[in-house]
Design a protein that fits this description.
6% strand; ADP binding; Disease_R_plants; P-loop_NTPase
Length: 147
Amino acid sequence: MGIYGMVGIGKTTLAKALYNQLLLGSYTGTSFLANVREISGTTNGLVSLQQQLISDVLKSKKKVNVHHVDQGTKLIEARIYEHKQFESLVGPFAPGSVVIITTRDEEILDTIDVETRYRYRVNELDDAESLALFTRHAFGNDKPNNT
């Protein structure tokens, strides 16, 4: 599934809500990797993402130590997926897997072959929708009090 839209519109918040309400507890192994672009651009960022994925999916109490990306890839292959599933993960994801990707650029979803029917654009709220959302969370109703 691909969720796309402008910066700050709430794509990650929506993805996290979907993950928490629909996926968490429905699968044997789950992981929510936030800020992948930012983290992968840091020193050892990909390694830390691999460590998190392995730890989350295996629900391991021991910290998984990954020293470099190739080692992390091999650990994921050996410990999480059977070889056929791993090959599927490298191309399309393993059968039965649910992956939610957020991006600013819909073309990224083209690149990784996300079907059009699984793409969702998050639009900006208009003034009335913004006010209703704010007042619902701030005051518990959709319309501001006139007092």
